[in-house]
Design a protein that fits this description.
about 120 residues; alpha+beta; Heat Shock Protein 90; 5-stranded mixed beta sheet; 3 helices; about 35% helix
């Protein structure tokens, strides 16, 4: 996904993918993919960013996906979880995952997804 977006846009995507990720159930795997896809698509469409960073890693008790960009951040009038991200948040809650979107004060946006895993 990131490679195709990089080819089709001017956005550079820096990736950091943990090679020791635990196996996730198919619904959680799809959730991680959809959040990454929606987030990167939003960066291309709205952020006016030069670079996005996508990190997928194992943390204690969870798998964490973080997408950040160096764009203009969220518009003041826009609710933090609008449009496609609202649906993803609902899907995350149904999977006992947590989705957080935060504005980085004019320095871009950060999307964090934390998916719990069994021990």
């Amino acid at each position: 996904m990131a490679t195709a977006i990089t080819r089709q846009s001017q956005l550079r995507i820096e990736r950091s993918l943990d090679r020791q990720l635990p196996q996730l159930p198919p619904d959680q795997e799809l959730l991680v993919y959809r959040v990454a896809q929606e987030s990167v698509t939003n960066v291309v469409r709205h952020a006016h960013a030069e670079t996005a960073w996508l990190e997928l890693r194992r943390v204690p008790g969870a798998v964490e996906l973080v997408i950040e960009d160096d764009g203009r951040g969220l518009p003041l009038a826009l609710p933090p979880l609008s449009g496609g991200l609202r649906g993803l948040r609902e899907r995350a809650l149904a999977s006992d995952a947590a989705l957080r979107v935060s504005d980085r004060a004019g320095r871009g946006t950060r999307v964090e997804l934390r998916v719990p895993v069994g021990s």
